[in-house]
Amino acid sequence: MNYxxxxxxxxxxxxxAATCWASGASASKFLFTSGVTPFQLVQMRITTAVVFLFxxxxxxxRALLRIDRRDVGYxxxxxxxxxxxxxxxxxxxxxxxxxxxxxxxxxxxPVIIAIYTAVFQRERLxxxxxxxxxxxxxxxxxxxxxxNLDLLQLNIAGILSGLGAACAFAWWSVHxxxxxxxxxxxxVLFYALLVAAVEWNxxxxxxxxxxxxxxxxxxxxxxxxxxxxxILPFGLYYEGINRIRATRASIxxxxxxxxxxxxxxxxxxxxxxxxxxxxxxxxxxxxxxxxLKQELDEKAPAVIRAKSHGSQPQx
Length: 315
Hints:
By secondary structure, the protein is mostly helical. The chain has 12 helices and no strands. The radius of gyration is 20 Å and the shape is globular.
């Protein structure tokens, strides 16, 4: 397979992954309007996803279930502050806000990582990064409708939950790197899901969410949210990263809130005000700026090494 075709496939896989995540978010909102609570959906989504993934790994890749005993503590932390926290904050934000607005708030994760490195790791913010942060904050202000004079009418719980999802996703991004260097991504995903599933079946009465007499259509959407909204997009995304750079994959995946907004408008009748849409575009532009800067920073050492050897860096 030639490089150009591999490149096209990589982008296609990432677009499909973003579409799956977006459709899962819209399906989740439908379930909330059907009487399922965010806490019930978290329990069903994670538990169903981990069972399906376990069966698939047992069938096709049993070796991926092996982990080093010394990493048990790491997976406990990753599953708790990463997977478990992401799922509840993400789904709760969707239940309280427009689907697209909730996803845009979650996409602030790279901005939070940039601020974290500046405050706690004393990393100097470049003009590019500072501009991206300011653009993202302005976009977030517009997305949540804070330009309305009556701030008391804002859905504070939904906004805080969306920001919490961004923080949890940022934590997952930073600390998930260790696991990805030592294990296959599917191993990391499975054990993070397993820890989250066990915890949510302790925090919420065990399997309580599965005991409700939902109509068959609702059960179908629950399975859809677990498989198409969780497991399948990860597989597509990992395949995409294998073919294109992770930075390019991250930029491409920003179509998720756009697709979610379209799906929610068509099937749920949700609509965002023009200023909210403009804010969403600003947030996505800020994320792209941060990712492009990261790619340039990664290329810089290669350029310096190439010059020192009197050659040009390879693409």
